[in-house]
Write a structure and sequence with these properties.
alpha/beta; five-stranded parallel beta sheet; elongated; transcription regulation; HTH_AraC; DNA-binding; phosphoprotein; transcription
Length: about 525
């Protein structure tokens, strides 16, 4: 172990020489690294050598020992100070207790007394060194554990278990530096039922998460961790406009994962929030978006804000402990899921309602839940109640068979209405895009990106909806529209091909001719000849 460094300070050189010769410094664990004959030179030497101990006289020119001690305490609080002085100065020195002098010794210096004093100082230094090493060990352990601690905090955040009073404290303690200003959550689900031959499902999921870190986390400012078998991302978002770009990035990853790794991955994107304290809402939206893969397919990203009308936000976050699964199955619109959820509700009803009054009250609460759910989704529940004029009165009087059938039929009817609302929203979006083609087909920069940007949706969602509604991709639709218009211009005018190309949005005449020939099987000039008879 390294020896402790000592500096001797006295304006009498013979005193310093005697001390150096009479003390067995090496055996005591010290090493004299320098000496000075006044306080000013001592400070210069301290700055250079950074000693552990300074032994100084009081009476010295320029700067005495007490002033030196005061300066050392201010600037080098870890240095131990031993003062030796004459008898007539001893009481004066003892009064300076606020200087935290380690030891006071009277001249002439006794080698045995100074050795004993140095032993006591060494014990203090050893304890300080041990404590410092322990603190360093704890710091190293904390830093090594930090990723796990951060993950535990993120899990608590998405579960909504962090209180507002503890929020800032935990972020600082676990060194979470996410400035936002907005945040959202993404959940990547890797199917366990579609795994390449010879591949372990857990290993595949771990491989997918590593690729998420390499391909998404490096581009987007986010934290990635595993929770309930899924890879979860908490992402910093500059503005809501970036959500479409994020969704497209996740969508490209899902398609890449299937093409390269054989992994069937679905990404769910939650809604934006303005604080990590509310990230649990975004997480629930992301999980719900993943569950919609039964409707929209796997190997893609699904943004909950795109598939659910924006005005349904309150309904999506609505929590009813008694009917949560039934509400969720209504959103999905699958009869088998609705039937299963209804039977579960009936079973819970019989298990919990121990009196007739409680039974009727619970059914009235279920009717109330239907009313609230429909109101949040801008649906008139009375139109789906099976013609019952007063459900609060009639439903509690139903027998079990009638009640079960009513719950299933009502849930299916509401689910179908929600589906129609989604379809109407999709059709309106497709119609808007088609109108943009009609109005702006002649603009060379009209593209899928342009349309999605103006509609405020991701490319992936828009492309899937457009293909479902029209039977072709948007690019194919735009190209066909341009080519049909070009064909009309060829037959109705005498314009050159390059002029017609410009009129339908093509700046490169050669590329226009290539696309035209691909559509009609002949060049523009031959098309004109064959259809007009002009040789």
């Amino acid at each position: 172990m390294d020896k402790y460094k000592v500096i001797l300070v006295d304006d009498e050189e013979e005193v310093i020489d005697v001390i150096e010769r009479k003390i067995h410094w090496d055996m005591l664990g010290f090493d004299v690294v320098g000496s000075a004959n006044n306080g000013v030179k001592a400070l210069e030497l301290v700055e250079k050598q950074q000693p552990d101990v300074v032994i100084t006289d009081i009476k010295m020119p320029y700067m005495d020992g007490l002033e030196l001690s005061r300066r050392l305490n201010n600037d080098y609080q870890n240095i131990h100070i031993i003062i030796f002085t004459g008898f007539d100065e001893f009481e004066y020195a003892k009064e300076a207790v606020h200087l935290e002098i380690e030891e006071y010794m009277l001249k002439p210096i006794n080698a045995l007394e100074l050795s004993d004093c140095l032993k006591r100082v060494k014990n203090s230094l050893d304890k300080e060194r041990e404590e410092k090493l322990n603190v360093e060990k704890l710091a190293n352990y904390f830093n090594a554990s930090l990723p796990v601690l951060q993950t535990n905090l993120f899990v608590s955040l998405i579960e909504g278990r962090v209180s507002e009073s503890d929020y800032e404290k935990f972020l600082a303690a676990y060194q979470i530096d996410m400035k936002g200003p907005l945040y959202c959550c993404a959940v990547f689900h890797t199917s366990e039922h579609h795994v390449p031959d010879g591949m372990n499902p857990l290993l595949l999921s771990m491989s997918v998460e590593q690729q998420i870190k390499d391909r998404i986390a490096d581009t987007w400012k986010c934290k990635v961790f595993t929770y309930l078998g899924n890879s979860v991302l908490i992402i910093e978002i500059a503005s809501e406009d970036a959500m479409a770009e994020l969704t497209d990035a996740c969508d490209r990853f899902c398609r890449w994962a299937y093409r390269v790794m054989g992994a069937v991955v679905t990404a769910g994107i939650g809604r934006v929030c303005d604080s990590l304290l509310n990230i649990n809402n975004s997480y629930e939206g992301a999980r719900e978006a993943v569950s919609y893969r039964v409707l929209y397919g796997t190997q893609r990203a699904i943004n909950i804000a795109e598939i659910a009308p924006k005005e349904q936000k309150a309904a999506v976050q609505y929590e009813d402990a008694n009917m949560h699964e039934l509400i969720k199955s209504i959103y999905l619109g699958k009869r088998d899921a609705i039937e299963g959820a209804v039977h579960d509700e009936i079973e819970k009803l019989h298990r919990s309602a121990q009196t007739m009054n409680r039974y009727k009250l619970t059914l009235m609460e279920m009717v109330g839940t239907f009313y609230r759910f429909c109101a949040n989704n801008f649906i008139d529940f009375d139109n789906f109640s099976g013609g019952i004029s007063n459900p609060y009165e009639k439903v509690p009087e139903m027998d079990e068979v009638t009640l079960t059938a009513w719950l299933i039929d009502t849930s299916m009817a509401i689910g179908e209405e929600l589906k129609n609302a989604r379809n109407n929203t999709s059709r309106r979006m497709v119609t808007d895009a088609q109108n943009m083609v009609v109005d702006r087909y002649m603009e060379p920069d009209l593209s899928l990106d342009t349309v999605c940007s103006e509609l405020g949706v991701s490319n992936s969602y828009f492309s899937s909806v457009f293909k479902k509604e029209t039977g072709k991709s948007f690019i194919s639709y735009l190209t066909d529209y341009r080519m049909d218009h070009a064909a009309n211009l060829i037959l109705e005018t005498n314009e050159k091909s390059y002029k017609i190309a410009e009129q339908v949005g093509y700046q490169d005449a050669n590329y226009f001719s290539y696309v035209f020939k691909k559509r009609f099987g002949m060049s523009p000039s031959k098309y004109r000849t064959e259809h007009t008879g002009n040789k």
